[in-house]
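The freezer alarm interrupted the setup, so I double-checked each line after restarting. Inputs confirmed:
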Amino acid sequence: MKKGEITITITISLMCLILTTVIFVQFKTINQTDITTLENMREDELRTEISNFKQKAVEIEEQLKTTNLKIKEYQETINTDKKASELLAEELEQQNNILGKNDVSGSGIILTLTDTRAQKITSEDLRQLLNQLRADGAEAISINGQRIVYDSYVVDLGGTFISVNGERLVSPYEVKVIGNPTYLESGLSKKQYGYIDTKLEQGKDVVLERKDKILINAYKGNLNMEYAKEAE
Amino acid sequence: MIIFAIIIGCALGALIGMNVPTISYTYSGYLAIAIVAALDSVFGGITSVLKGNFDFKVFITGFFGNAILSILLTWLGVKLNVDIYLAAIVVFVGRMFTNLAIIRRYYIDKWSKKVEKEEIKNENETKTMG
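Predicted 3D structure, all chains:
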């Protein structure tokens, strides 16, 4: 074999070596790299990716806007509901005050009716008084702590006791009244034919006292109706 | 002899290539262009051998020069924001196809001539037999 041929052979084998090495390195690289990762993407791929993300961001922003609007609406309805429920609660409270289910306080008068040696206080006296007080604008009344409500009754019990709401009461009868004190007082203390004058003339002891703050306790019984139902 | 050299070189190259650490993905594009250029040179070399005008110096310089030049051009293309590697690939692959076509035709011609010869031979034999 000539010297030239040997050189050619060696050179060609070297070239083959380099070429195959490079080709295999390339194969390996391409096999091992994950094209989907950001670092390996080409510039145009990255660009499209970025524009995709931008579009997505715009869409999501719109979604956010609509969702925020919805939240606002819901908030408003919640607020109105709250207002309505507050109003209802207030109304309920007022109704309870009127019915006598709550302790109430305010300005008014206290009347004390006491038995004397000559005369006893009768249930009729108390009923008259209650009527007169209501006529003069009393808002809450109690007799010896018994709240007078819409179905309260005042009756004699065998001449010894007076029953109010089923409770036995004895003299002295302390009648607490909340209302305009001036109206109440003037209604009771008319000259000659007024309640107080009449009773004093009969020989019964009636004392009237004006107070700025009177506390009247709630009705302790039940306010139920068994037979009466709302008519349709 | 040369065939042995090629086989040994290829086997060794495959072995080395399997065990060499991988390169960064960014540079694999350059390497791919170099590979295409080198392959083009190889096929060009084979064609010239068949044609009988093979020059070893031209082959060697083409092999390495084309590879390096294509890498440089690709790099330049990246810098200029023009996809020059596309042009390189079109040229090299186009030439590879031309060379492959030439090689194919050469061997087809050779084979068909051989077949013709045998036919003539057979005819002569039958004549002598008759």
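Quick read of the result. The longest helix of chain B spans residues 84-129.
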